[in-house]
Amino acid sequence: MAKILICDDEAGLRAVLKRYAKFEGHDVMEAGDGLEAIELCRKNAFDIIIMDIMMPELDGFSAVEEIRKFSDMPVIMLSARGEEYDRILGFEIGVDDYVVKPFSSKEIMLRVGAILRRTEKNSSVKSDENGHIIFKKDGLKVDMTAYKVFIDGVQVDMAPKEYDLLFFLIRNKNIAIPREKIMTEVWGFDYYGDDRTLDTHMKLLRKSLGPYSYLIKTLRGLGYRFDE
Fold this sequence. Notes:
single chain; Arc Repressor Mutant, subunit A; 41% helix
């Protein structure tokens, strides 16, 4: 089962794709424009996004560019136009597939399945049989649904903000994240404290991770990156 975000301003199209996706056992969320899609992606770890280009508020290209700043979720782009320029732009900003309307829902789900199979082989973040989001790296196991962390089979207790910080880093693994963005996303827009708070919590998190602290890389003058 995968968690899919369908973003299109046509409610009818969303409904049809959602019906097919749910029939195949997937969990589906919807967005009616690019801005809504970005907000949902900040709060959820989707396995794949189906994104239309032409939408009100914010178009699909702009939405994907923003999402790529904090996540590498796979994206299938939908378009009513088949111009080469649109295809090239889509792939340049990190789109995984490009489908021109009209299309069949079956075709979309086949493309979704192909991308999910490919990414599942290369991803360390997966859903278990209970629907829990699990990250595994050698002897490190992180259950982001149950808020449990295991190191070589032993559960480690962490402070609430350590969990939040670790989960945020994992959801954005292999991406360089500026300090300001981490503070905003983990501590909230209303945080006005000293940014040494981040360094303190990062030190505590590294201590909690023990032999796997090396996964957190400090990027001098920028922020941090969680390497897979």
